[in-house]
UniProtKB/TrEMBL annotation, chain A:
Listed InterPro entries: HypE, PurM-like_C_dom, PurM-like_C_sf, PurM-like_N, PurM-like_N_sf
Protein source organism: Neobacillus rhizosphaerae
Pfam (any one): AIRS_C
Family recorded in the similarity comment: Belongs to the HypE family.
Gene expressing this chain: hypE
Family annotation (CDD domains): HypE
Domain PurM-like N-terminal, first and last residues per copy: 37-147
Name of the protein described by the UniProt record: Carbamoyl dehydratase HypE
UniProt keyword terms in alphabetical order: Lyase
Regions that span the bilayer: none
Signal peptide segment: none
Automatic annotation (TrEMBL), chain B:
Keyword Metal-binding attached: yes
Source taxon at top rank: Bacteria
UniProt name for this protein: Hydrogenase maturation factor HypD
Pfam families in UniProt: HypD
Naturally occurring in which organism (per UniProt): Neobacillus rhizosphaerae
UniProt keyword annotation of Nucleotide-binding present: no
NCBIfam families: hypD
Length: 333, 370
């Protein structure tokens, strides 16, 4: 096998064939689903969920994960928070000419490992190669198919007093990736939280009928996702600043550079809004999983007249939180 | 250390502090028939006071006025336009702190120029600019040197590094500002009635406690050097009221573990080596003599203003009142544009877009519509 990807690896000929055989099938397996131009899969007679996501992260390898792990976990989580059980994935690769084959192997291996862990099967894929300079290393798109299970899911009906739970510390991914880019001039011993949450969230739905909604606060962070929920369902949510779990290291970097952890990306966290009387049960379930060991209640729904998100400071004053507006830039001093 | 910092926002510590400040403020009101008024000189203080809720908790008892301490906000419009025009030149890489990217120029922003294809890079670690210059010998790398005494040492460090590595294609567009001249301007102008200043902890690390002596000796006004955590802010305000009540003027160092009497001498040596005082134009104020620092003539090779000429016309006039906000004459919501024509997604003036701007702090943390 060549050491670097060339345009010929994407021309559909012999090199393409070898790349697919030696890198992709080698890792993903040549399942029964793989037919000629389309995979054939069987889905029981139920409602399905479909989601698609593209991954362009830089750097492609970062503490706690890689673009490969993220491409599986990200799409799996989109299905899982929708209340669906992820079953199939497809993946599309856009690779820059000259990309090291060893790196590609590692990325594909990370995808295969994460897929195995989550129980999804990668059933179809595509590879394209573009000229050097037309892309930055590698981009991956994954599409996921999930199955809704009967009598299980989120009610999307809210009541005053419902608890807002977050499954762990926020901002880890944002800070891990920013520092891994090497542009901050500081090193921080922090890993991305990149992880698939489907098993944990399935357990929550199995045992609680009080779940109102689940979301994963990725780009835009915790605050932006909560604002979206508040506006979409016309509910007033209040979170307590002091209860929001943030690692000391993340706090430190944010203080130094003027970021707000509430707006930093997460890739392995869930927000769960749950009926007041089920909150402890859900917290207990989450804490049984390593991905949820720091799960806490961070706030409540306090009204149903106005779609907005409030934050109560440790001093007891309240302020409105808005969506992230524009890119967050570090401050001057 | 982290545990101590965490304690600083612990409600069990901070809520009683709020009560104590309010009690002291009431005592002041009884004695003088008005709220005590203090100016927080630094943009980071403005942000911290708003974000932690201290401003809201004290709004009926203490008048906290934002001062001219946000470096981007105090940069005059012609200078902003010049920096944006600088980026139009061919074969240049413009390096900047992120705050500058969305600051509105008369015609466009640096972000607009970047989107249009100009090579403009936001640096988190400014010394990175030296590396960029080394890697791009056929391009001119220009750093936009905007900042107060906290930032100026980094600029000298960059020049030192460029000198050491004999890098010929690196320069800084200096538009730095100094704290003392602008405080003197405000006090001389007498437009704002103040009972004291909250002095910024980090600038004071550079300047040292003694550097504020003129406030006491010449203006008979107090200053309390204050940190940025909730408890520190509250304690700084408490001390300020206490001083105002006695009628004595003094400088109190509430940050003695990191702010020394004479400041950071190594930094002073660096600044003396490379820099010399110069006149600077301030937004809403005009030129204040000797209120900035420029590179000494022997370092002209690193001075972008000496190496490149840019031509800018008269700045576009808007109804933005950033100039008055900076001088502490109005609070952001008194500007007719605030929250309507001017908001973070469409800033009309720099105070709405800078991470330390008063308008941004007010918009983000102090609007109460619930």
């Amino acid at each position: 096998m060549e050491k670097f990807i060339s345009l010929a690896h994407g021309d559909g000929g012999e090199l393409s064939h070898r790349l697919i055989r030696d890198v992709f099938i080698n890792a993903f397996g040549d399942g029964n689903e793989a037919m000629f131009d389309a995979a054939s899969v069987i889905i029981s007679n139920s409602k399905i969920a479909v989601t698609t996501d593209s991954f362009v992260i830089k750097p492609i390898f970062f503490p706690g994960g890689s673009i490969g792990k993220l491409a599986v976990a990200g799409t799996v989580n989109d299905l899982a928070v929708s209340g669906a059980k992820p079953v199939y994935l497809t993946c599309g690769f856009i690779i820059e000419e000259g990309f090291p084959v060893a790196d590609l192997r590692q990325i594909v291996l990370d995808m295969a490992n994460e897929a195995r862990k989550t129980g999804v099967v990668i059933v179809a894929g595509d590879t394209k190669v573009v000229e050097r300079g037309s892309a930055d290393g590698v981009y991956i798109n994954t599409t996921g198919i999930g199955v809704y299970q009967p009598n299980m899911g989120c009610s999307l009906e809210f009541e005053e007093g419902d608890a807002i739970i977050v499954s762990g510390t926020i901002g880890d991914h944002g800070i891990a990736v920013l520092t891994a880019r090497g542009e901050l001039g500081i090193t921080v011993p922090i890993n991305s939280d990149c992880a698939s949450l489907n098993t944990m969230l399935d357990e929550v739905l199995q045992h609680s009928k009080g779940v109102r909604i689940m979301r994963d606060p990725t780009r835009g962070g915790l605050a932006t996702t909560l604002v979206e929920i508040a506006e979409d369902f016309n509910i007033t949510m209040k979170i307590n600043e002091i209860d929001v779990p943030v690692k000391g290291e993340v706090h430190g970097v944010c203080d130094l550079l003027g970021f707000d952890p509430l707006y930093l990306a997460n890739e392995g966290k869930a927000i769960i809004v749950v009926a007041e009387n089920e909150r402890n049960k859900v917290i207990d379930i989450l804490r049984e999983f390593p991905e949820g060991e720091n799960a806490v209640v961070i706030g409540t729904i306090i009204g149903k007249e106005k779609g907005q998100l409030l934050l109560e400071t440790p001093l007891g004053s309240k302020r409105i939180l808005n969506r992230l507006s524009g890119t967050m830039f570090p401050r001057i001093c | 250390m982290l545990e101590i910092l965490k304690q600083s926002s612990n409600p069990e510590i901070c809520k009683p502090l709020v009560e104590a400040v309010i009690e002291k403020a009431k005592e002041f009101q009884q004695k003088f028939g008005r709220r005590p008024a203090f100016m927080e000189v630094c943009g980071s203080h403005t942000m911290s006071l708003a974000r932690t809720g201290v401003k809201q908790c004290l709004k009926d008892e203490v008048n906290l006025i934002s001062g001219p301490g946000c470096p981007v906000c105090v940069t005059d419009q012609r200078s902003i336009d010049a920096m944006i025009a600088l980026a139009e030149g061919e074969n240049r890489i413009i390096c900047t702190f992120g705050d500058m990217m969305r600051v509105p120029g008369s015609n466009k922003t640096l972000l607009d120029s970047k989107i249009a294809g100009k090579d403009i890079r936001v640096l988190y670690s400014p010394v990175e600019a030296i590396k960029i210059a080394e890697e791009n010998p056929d391009k001119e790398v220009i750093f936009l040197g905007v900042g107060f005494e906290t930032t100026i040492p980094i600029l000298t460090l960059m020049v030192g590094e460029a000198e050491k590595r004999s890098i010929g294609n690196f320069s800084i567009w200096m538009t730095t500002k100094l704290v003392e001249p602008v405080l003197r301007y405000l006090l001389d102008a007498g437009e704002v009635n103040l009972d004291g200043f909250l002095l910024p902890g980090h600038v004071s690390i550079v300047l040292g406690e003694n550097s504020y002596k003129y406030l006491v000796d010449e203006y008979h006004i107090s200053g309390v050097i204050t940190g940025f955590e909730t408890a520190e802010l509250l304690f700084g305000i408490y001390k300020s009221i206490e001083l105002a009540l006695t009628g004595q003027a003094a400088i109190i160092n509430n940050h003695p573990s990191i702010v020394t009497k004479t400041g950071n001498q190594v930094i002073h040596q660096w600044m003396d080596k490379y820099l010399t005082e110069c006149d600077e134009a301030w937004r809403g104020i005009g030129v204040i003599p000797n209120s900035g620092l420029d590179l000494k003539p022997e370092y002209s090779q690193f001075n972008a203003k000496k190496r490149f000429t840019v031509e800018v016309g008269e700045p576009r006039k808007t109804k933005c009142r950033c100039g008055e906000v900076i001088r502490g004459l109005i609070s952001p919501n008194e500007c007719s544009l605030f929250g309507k024509a001017c908001h973070p997604m469409n800033p009309v003036g720099p105070c709405m877009v800078s991470a330390e701007g008063s308008c941004a702090a007010y918009y983000q943390y102090m609007r109460e519509s619930f």
